[in-house]
Amino acid sequence: IGISYNDCCNGTKCPVCTGKCKDNLEMLLKKAELAMNQVKLNGKNNFMFFDPSMNDAIQRTASLQQDLKLALKNEVLEVYYQPKFDLGKNRYDGMEALIRWNHPRQGLVMPDIFIPIAERTGMIVPMTQWLIERLAEEMGDWLKANPECYLSINISASHFESPFFLKRAYQTLHRHGIAPSQLTLEITERELIDGASNTTRKVLQLANQYGFKLAIDDFGTGYNNLARLYEFGFELIKIDRSLVRMAVDKAGGDRIFDAVLTVANGYGAPVLVEGVESPADVAFVAHRDIHSLQGWLFSKPISSAEFKKFHQHHTAHDAVRRPINLAPTPLGVATAFAK
Ligand code: G
Ligand code: G
Ligand code: MN
Fold it and tell me: How far is the CA of 36 from the centre of ligand 2 (A)?
């Protein structure tokens, strides 16, 4: 519900009133609608009073929305890739694709801003289709040369309403000669909150049938029904970076981390820890039952051109397979706790 009210005294009570500030009915309804839209943006099921700042916010979103439509059409979005480091193999073996938008006037716009817009406007599914096409072009050679490596993309609940995207994804990969098992779909624990719904279950089953792998993203932050998550059968569980921060930076945080890790391990799937930023973080995860790591210590998300250099560097240092951007190198540590 959005609420606007006519606070003009209409010249009867207020000494400064000009009588011109009285809104007409149309204006009042418009303001109520803006307030209601704001409620929807904040997660529905609430009410809000109109505030003049809403005009600006709505206008900004509307213009971003227009620009995003053009960006998708003109293919000016970019894909960045962030490596995942496998501790057992002692090398990186996966890359997470993350979309970036280089806006002509605003500069780099991050997905936290534009993904919600894409979701509300139905652009998210075409965007994912575009993304998979781009991945196949940019990373196809690497995937084919390294069958044990994989790419992952992020999927949100709005994809569950258009399961057709799975078929398109399969066809795109097939056309490029890439195995579907080399694509992992990451879904945040939060997005699975309505996991009871048949739609979610069916779409995830379908994804499995096409041969894609499934991962739970941001594990430990979604308040999910743990028994229900078990039914989905995920192949990778990614522990949210906030838990590592807490474990390393806050007294007693390690106990919570360990409790979450125990639950994650309980599903029987490999566990990845996100947001590994420093040697102290590596030291913390060492000797715990963790399969792979992702974070700035290994590499920030990089463009496909940078990835080529990254890959060459790794191939050149094949014997040690030392992650780049690593100073001081935790190689000793990584080797020490490689299973
Ligand atoms: O690195 P980064 O700021 O890109 O990512 C911020 C958030 O945006 C992450 O939670 C990530 O999962 C999400 N994100 C990035 N790219 C995509 C995408 O292609 N699709 C969806 N649904 N989310 C994405
Ligand atoms: O939610 P998801 O796991 O898809 O998010 C990936 C997000 O995490 C991206 O925004 C990416 O830029 C960010 N990220 C990746 N590695 C690190 C890290 O080591 N530290 C922090 N703070 N963020 C990271
Ligand atoms: Mn992710």
Answer: 32
- CA–CA dist 212, 167 (Å, integer): 11
DSSP-derived 3-state class of residue 211: coil
Q: H/E element holding 79? A: strand 77-86
Listed residue (193, 229, 196, 228) closest to 214, CA to CA:
229
Report which ligand 1 atom has the smallest distance to the Cα of 159: 22
Cα-Cα-Cα-Cα dihedral of 163, 155, 126, 147, to 10°?
-90
The reply to whether omega before 328 is within 30° of 0 (cis) is yes
Residues forming beta bridges with residue 104, ordered by sequence position: none
What is the per-residue pLDDT across 147-196, written as a single tens digit (0 to 9) for each? 999 999 999 988 988 889 999 999 999 999 999 999 999 999 988 876 55
Reported as a single tens digit per residue, the pLDDT across 196-225 is 577 888 899 999 999 999 999 999 998 888
Helices marked H in 250-328 — which ranges?
A: 253-266, 279-285, 304-316
Q: What is the pTM of this model?
A: 0.83
Structure-token match 């962030």, residue found:
82
Distance CA 225, CA 227 (A): 6
225 C-alpha to ligand 3 centroid (Å): 20
Determine the pLDDT at residue 45: 84
